[in-house]
TrEMBL record:
<dbReference type="InterPro" id="IPR042097">
    <property type="entry name" value="Aminopeptidase_N-like_N_sf"/>
</dbReference>
<feature type="binding site">
    <location>
        <position position="298"/>
    </location>
    <ligand>
        <name>Zn(2+)</name>
    </ligand>
</feature>
<dbReference type="InterPro" id="IPR034015">
    <property type="entry name" value="M1_LTA4H"/>
</dbReference>
<dbReference type="InterPro" id="IPR045357">
    <property type="entry name" value="Aminopeptidase_N-like_N"/>
</dbReference>
<dbReference type="InterPro" id="IPR027268">
    <property type="entry name" value="Peptidase_M4/M1_CTD_sf"/>
</dbReference>
<feature type="domain" description="Aminopeptidase N-like N-terminal">
    <location>
        <begin position="133"/>
        <end position="195"/>
    </location>
</feature>
<dbReference type="InterPro" id="IPR001930">
    <property type="entry name" value="Peptidase_M1"/>
</dbReference>
<keyword id="KW-0031">Aminopeptidase</keyword>
<dbReference type="Pfam" id="PF01433">
    <property type="entry name" value="Peptidase_M1"/>
</dbReference>
<feature type="binding site">
    <location>
        <position position="317"/>
    </location>
    <ligand>
        <name>Zn(2+)</name>
    </ligand>
</feature>
<dbReference type="GO" id="GO:0016285">
    <property type="term" value="F:alanyl aminopeptidase activity"/>
</dbReference>
<feature type="region of interest" description="Disordered">
    <location>
        <begin position="440"/>
        <end position="466"/>
    </location>
</feature>
<dbReference type="GO" id="GO:0005737">
    <property type="term" value="C:cytoplasm"/>
</dbReference>
<keyword id="KW-0645">Protease</keyword>
<feature type="binding site">
    <location>
        <position position="294"/>
    </location>
    <ligand>
        <name>Zn(2+)</name>
    </ligand>
</feature>
<dbReference type="GO" id="GO:0006508">
    <property type="term" value="P:proteolysis"/>
</dbReference>
<feature type="active site" description="Proton donor">
    <location>
        <position position="370"/>
    </location>
</feature>
């Protein structure tokens, strides 16, 4: 598995990230007080220089007060302006050498400004939430903020004991001292900086289904008054997990959690091993079930298999959209062909100015990218046929597990499963702006051959509260 990193700055966010080095581990410890919205933190980054010596490098960190910076234990020269922490070590770092960076910072965290509004750390009425896609991670910790620079994380959060802390990964310890509690999470899988999710709130915790031996533990963290609605809305998530493991291969992480906040969110947001939903996504009628499937699918497509830079975002969103259609097809809803036809009809009435393989920053979260991405995946399925298509999907998720990819890597991968050339298909769907004709499956949909896995226990079992 090779990480396919871009050379030089990300074309959509040139101020974010530094391709001259990579981080392989973050150890982040923060103390957060919700009342005054006050955060102080320390971070230790274990990194490796690239092919050239490093006389300087940069981290991304929002407008905090810097208390101390150390490189290999020595004080460097540094400047901190415009969200960039520029560091000049006392001695240049040799090409290929390992080095450590320590940063101490404090202040009042707030979202990072972006064309889509504030991103990252958001102070809630009673708690906080971190949803960073694509450039919000520096709102609360110093990082090399580029999606291909994936690292393991240990996150330690100290906050008043009335609050629960939920982060992606395995909870190592929870230690109470006087009026505060420290929560320590470990995410050993390679993780992009924007996928470090976090929620601080007052939640009821439930276990979704019974994972059994070797199964994936799935927990929900929700406000107590939403438990009844949540129990119905997320009851089929364990069945989704079982289906997606069948179709995409083993779940790539150790556990999966969902958080429902007290407040409304425009859309749910994926993080590594964690998805964040708003109270508006819980109605007791499974009204947002397609989004439950979408966020779970991102654990394979977007989180485990990440993108080398933001030009390739359709690889995240197109596959997650198609997973919605596969879930519908396999659980007794509309088939993928029917949903593709509806998406195609919708897109045909909209402007034809989106280039899927490189949409530009302005259109990278356009609804058309999601729908056309799903249609592109469907077109590949139509050409390959179900047997080759699902082998291709499992191969893609397996070969690139923990890595970062490009559109060219996917087209080359898919071509290995085809009897003929896919060049015309990919040119039309990925590189041309005009909407190609609706593709059709040559055989009955997969729903005719296999049903959804057995339903989970209902309702979820209570696993304690915080």
């Amino acid at each position: 598995m090779a990480v396919q990193q871009s050379v030089g700055p990300d074309p959509y966010f040139p101020a974010n990230g530094d391709s001259r080095y990579r981080v392989h581990r973050y150890e982040v410890a923060v103390d957060y007080r919700p009342g005054p919205n006050r955060l102080s933190g320390t971070a230790r980054l274990n990194a490796i220089a690239g092919r050239a010596a490093l006389s300087e490098f940069q981290l991304n960190l929002a407008d905090f007060k810097i208390g101390r910076v150390r490189v290999d234990g020595r004080a460097p020269h540094y400047t901190h302006r415009g969200g960039r922490l520029r560091v000049r070590p006392a001695k240049p770092i040799r090409a290929g050498a390992a080095f450590t960076v320590e940063v101490h910072w404090s202040g009042n965290p707030k979202p990072v400004n972006s064309p889509w509004g504030g991103l990252g750390w958001e102070e809630l009425t009673d708690g906080a939430l971190v949803a960073s896609q694509p450039i919000g991670a520096p709102s609360w910790y110093p990082c090399n903020d580029r999606p291909a620079d994936k690292a393991s994380y240990q996150i330690s959060i100290t906050t008043p004991s009335a609050y629960q802390v939920v982060a992606g990964g395995r909870l190592l310890t929870r230690t109470a001292k006087a009026s505060t509690t420290t929560w320590v999470y470990e995410q050993s899988a390679p993780t992009s900086s924007y996928l470090v999710g976090l929620s601080i709130g007052k939640y009821q915790t439930v276990l979704l289904g019974d994972p059994g031996p070797g199964g994936v533990p799935q927990h929900g963290h929700i406000p107590a008054h939403l438990l009844t609605e949540f129990s119905r809305d997320f009851a089929r998530q364990p069945a989704m997990m079982e289906l997606f493991e069948e179709l995409f291969g083993p779940y790539p992480f150790g556990e999966y959690a969902v958080v429902v906040t007290e407040e409304e969110l425009d859309v749910p947001v994926e993080a590594q091993g964690l998805s964040l939903f708003g109270a508006n996504h819980v109605d007791g009628a499974r009204g947002s079930e397609r989004l439950v499937a979408h966020e779970l699918a991102h654990q394979w497509f977007g989180n485990s298999v990440s993108i080398a830079d933001w030009r390739h975002i359709w690889l995240n969103e197109g596959f997650a959209k198609y997973a919605e259609w596969l879930w519908s097809e396999r659980s007794g809803g509309r088939s993928a062909q029917q949903l593709a036809a509806a998406a195609h009809q919708k897109l045909s009435a909209l402007p034809q100015d989106l280039r899927l393989a490189d949409p530009g920053r302005k259109l990278m979260f356009d609804d058309r990218l999601y729908e056309r991405g799903g249609l592109t995946v469907h077109a590949v399925r139509c050409v390959l046929g179900d047997d080759a298509f699902f082998r291709m999907l499992r191969g893609w998720a397996n070969v690139h597990r923990g890595g970062a990819v490009t559109t060219a890597a996917f087209t080359a991968h898919a071509a290995r499963y085809a009897d003929g050339s896919l060049d015309d298909l990919f040119r039309a769907w990925l590189h041309d702006t005009a909407l190609p004709p609706l593709p059709s499956l040559p055989s009955p949909p997969v729903s005719k051959r296999a049903a959804v896995p057995a339903r989970p226990s209902y309702p979820p079992t209570n696993a304690g509260s915080a």
